[in-house]
Amino acid sequence: MSRAAHKWTSAEIPAQAGKLALITGANSGIGYRTALELARARCGVILGCRDRIKADAARSRILGQVPAAHLEVLPLDLASMESVRAAAERFLATGQHLDLLVNNAGVLAPPHRRLTRDGFELQFGTNHLGHFALTGLLLPALLSPGPPGAPTPRIVSVSSIAHRGATMDFANLQWERGYRPWPAYRRSKLANLLFGFELERRLERSRAAVMSVVVHPGVSNTNLFTAGPGQGRGLVAKLVPAFIALFAQSDAQGALPTLYAATASDIRGGRFYGCDGFRQMRGYPVEVRAETQAYDETLAAKLWQVSEDLTGVKYQLPENHP
Ligand SMILES: NC(=O)c1ccc[n+]([C@@H]2O[C@H](COP(=O)([O-])OP(=O)(O)OC[C@H]3O[C@@H](n4cnc5c(N)ncnc54)[C@H](OP(=O)(O)O)[C@@H]3O)[C@@H](O)[C@H]2O)c1
Asked: Is the pTM of this model over 0.70?
């Protein structure tokens, strides 16, 4: 960890007027708080959400606090490649430049193995493959010229301290054998890190003026725990959400690493930002180290190839992009 002394808060977000951000899962938790604070800083925000009613409710809540906010809803179900492609096409058709993509949406540890529309294990499919495809498809909007003097566009992918101890078993990537909810979540969050770091290396190699960073929100009190583990039947299903409600930091605090990575001027591509408190579970944004295997370039290259094969999305990054 470094730079722990300064307690960065959302009050330090630089003015974002003229910028446009797309946030996945922006109707709830970390994504909602990120949308709210970016809107407050006058960033235009597109709420990428799968549930229109929840998305409209989130939009209304933000407008209640920031009446001048520029907000749009983009229907997006990351558990469906058809939906991901339709969302990307719809955005690209507007011809707008994208300054910020926040790959935030996520699902945690459903008690039984579930599949996306395309037959991927739900967590790997939603948390990683959906965002892998979305990012690749939206790259033209991030690479397109922004207004003169605009800062480098950023892609912020939300991982977790739960990436620690994950296994990337390519022979059983979709957990056809021996599904376990938490290890499957860990794998999807390690995938977020491998992807975010590999994306930065590829952007650098092609000299593209886009930056990729990864963040984690510590442990924050959001719907994640009731929507996932809370769906089980045993004691754990009751205890996990109760424990989180009692001990986790707020969603607003948990959104700070994302907001910091998205807007601060001292952010560097290929870095990981989390929380400065006890075991990184809470606190203020700070650069952190991921587990060693997250920096494994061979593993990342393999995951990239597998992800392209599974999603059918091939990244268009020309060598020496101007
Ligand atoms: N909370 C924590 O302590 C914690 C810790 C580490 C990492 N994270 C990460 O933080 C991110 C945000 O989670 P959160 O804690 O804010 O949880 P949350 O409140 O449950 O928000 C998750 C968001 O993802 C959306 N989502 C889920 N599946 C989707 C799909 N198929 N397509 C589109 N959107 C989908 C949800 O939409 P619906 O409302 O429609 O379900 C919701 O908007 C996740 O990536 C999570 O892994 C959270």
From this structure: yes
